[in-house]
Amino acid sequence: MANCPNCGSDHLSVAGGNLNACLECGTSWEAAELYQIRRIIQELTGASLDLARETDRYYMKAFMHEILSDFEAIPTVKSAAAKLITDAQSKKHDKTALMFIAGLPFGIGGCIGKGGGGGFLIFLIAVIAFTAFGRLLDQVEKKDVERDIKRAELKAEQMVAAAQENLQSKLDAFQQSYFL
Asked: What is the pLDDT of residue 114?
């Protein structure tokens, strides 16, 4: 039997779809949301709530006020941590191809200026030199990007751990203050 999360009454009305309303105090709520909150409370504290009891309703309200926002912050922190890593990984650039393209005008210019077989040799030298320089830049940048990725992964782990530790400390304090 369902009970009102506000007054504990079992005089309820389904006000459409997933919305319930108490006929005693007029409070309305979404059944799925209330079920989810009760599931979270049971998962984190082990408490199985009977909303017909005032102490259980008080416990649930206190939990929602003191703990729920920290619990809901964990996925947000995990998302921000994943974004840190993705941002660090996106800093990879292919300078070899860029330098090859940059070498083309110099090679073509040398080819036109020199003419004949010597021009083609200047073209090859310019393209090869620019491409080699691009590869060198890629190797240097790869080390920097790998270092940045490692730092981002470490920071991400620290962010998630801090959020989980914060939740756990608040949960411990909550369970010492409120018990059924």
From this structure: 63
Q: In angstroms, rounded to a whole number, what is the distance separating the alpha carbons of residues 110 and 127?
A: 11
Query: Structural domain tally of the chain?
Result: 2
Is 125's pLDDT higher than 90?
Answer: no
Instruction: Give DSSP secondary structure letters for 87-128.
Output: HHHTT---HHHHHHHHHHHHHHHHHHHH-HHHHHHHHHHHHH
Strand pairing report for 28-30 and 19-22: antiparallel
Do residue 134 and residue 84 come from a single domain?
A: yes
User: Taking residues 150-179, what's their average pLDDT?
Assistant: 95
Range of the domain at 155: 77-177
Say yes or no: 51 and 96 in one domain: no
Could you tell me the CA-to-CA distances from 35 to 30, 107, 116, 136, 149 in Å, in that order? 9, 70, 82, 59, 40
81 and 62 housed in the same domain: no
Are 51 and 94 members of one domain?
no
- Which of 54, 38, 48 is CA-nearest to residue 6? 54
